[in-house]
Amino acid sequence: MNGKQLKNSILQWAIQGKLVPQDPNDEPASVLLDRIRQEKARLVKEKKIKKDKNESIIYRGEDNSYYEKFIATGEVKCIDEEIPFEIPQGWKWCRLRNIIKGTNAGKSPNCEKRPKNNEEWGVLTTTAIQENEFLPSENKVLPQNYKINLEHSVKYGDILITRAGPINRTGIVCMVDKECDKLILSDKTVRIDYMSNYCNPAFIVFALNCPAIHELLMRVTVGMAASQVNISQENIQNALIPFPNINEQNRIVEKITNLNPIITKYDFEQQQLEELNVYLTTQIKKSILQEAIQGKLVPQIEEEGTAQELLEQIKQEKQELVKEGKLKKSTLTDSVIYKGDDNKYYEQVGKNINEITDEIAFDLPDGWIWCRLKDICSIFTGATFKKEEATTTKQGIRILRGGNISPFELKIKDDDIFLTEDKVKKDILLKENDILTPAVTSLENIGKMARVDKNMPYTTVGGFVFIIRLHLIDQWLSKYILCLLSSPFMIEFMKSITNKSGQAFYNIGKERLSAALLPIPSLMEQQRIVAQIEKLFEQLR
Questions:
Q1: Domain limits at 238?
Q2: Taking the CB of residue 325, how many other CB atoms lie within 10 A of it?
Q3: How far is CA 151 from the centre of its chain?
Q4: CA angle centred on 240, ends 43 and 172, rounded to 5°
Q5: Do both 253 and 317 map to the same domain?
Q6: In whole angstroms, what is the distance from residue 309 CA to residue 522 CA?
Q7: Which CATH number covers residue 154?
Q8: What is the pLDDT of residues 390-441, one digit of tens each?
Q9: Is residue 289 part of a domain?
Q10: Does one domain contain both 50 and 145?
């Protein structure tokens, strides 16, 4: 449980009457609601507030059902489906409108995208209203010629609620607990004008922010998409509130206030623990991959053959691909890497032999060999296109980009772009066992690898992503190469061959990547390595 979840649990206990004990000597909430109705009637008579035509009383009938009686019309209706939980004896359910004077919103003129200074007026943005926290610095400066309506000005002690915005930012309530000067409400923020002598404003904030009540409020939002919804003032006023007497309200507020520093400390320590767990999991995974590619994760079994036999198999497959016109003849010129009698490493390409001892990072077990990436695969760059050629109509060829690639996971996203089929070469459509990695990316994302686990005939990648396609189509070889390329050894290599492209991006050259040295075991050992990695990674979830 994180700090947010703990706070929500405490709020839920509070408004269900489970956080502090009830005092039998306290007057019932029904008496307090009667006094509020009398006070509102007086204010109406004095023309200080408007008469509420929807004022109601909620009560429990002899059949244990909940009913709402509208005072103006005498209409009575059952509201059992609205009641989210039981409340203690002496508490009452009521509408927010029955315990407040009303609500009001502000205006949102066109503003500069900067906060106001001390001498200027500003309009609050919705981000000023956080759950149980007010941030007056979140504002935009009003135009100098804007005529200020002082009725819209924000005051200390105001209860504010976000009325419109993204679904995760709508219906958020806070109290203005800081002195603020020259700020007005926007049309996306609503002020709740409460009865200060009859209820604790902090209790109202806590009640509206508690998960069960907030959920009820969000059911009446309107909007075509989660990115922009709104709640009418009418629906805000209709929100159901569990209402205790004023003494218990005060005890609840005091208890939550005392618990908040403890919750904050808990949240901080929980975040640190979660970050530590993520860090340790990441480091353990890195260690597993590094041990795997050095031949230390599983024992070697002589009967399983050698990596040299695998390379011969790959060479034969390349010859067939050349005959079919799918590979250039030049790909048949493989390098041979071997250890000489002098314990130095050499590479032979044709008749040329060069010492490469300084490129060899570690020794390999018997039966393993070093080879270049280009000897076992081809590397393709994705489709290039002009911005105006891409669409989000979900018709044609889906284009995956760097954001679609997570470590060991390929994600299809709702905002993926598409190209018409004539804009994409058929040879770069994704095939089973392809491995994808960003070619141009931020430093921390270098080495993100994902494997294609099935043919994707209507999907490819963009021009800033590489497709690594093995010459020998085998799932275990593909999975092993995925693990190998995701290892710390290979990620450091990829970082070492990048060129900085722009201020924040790094470019991995295809030719430099093709020259990467890979430690390769037999195919059967690869299968055992991959199986062990998958088992260990599953245990780390």
A1: 3-265
A2: 7
A3: 39
A4: 95
A5: no
A6: 7
A7: 3.90.220.20
A8: 887 888 999 999 999 999 999 999 889 999 998 999 999 999 999 999 999 9
A9: no
A10: yes
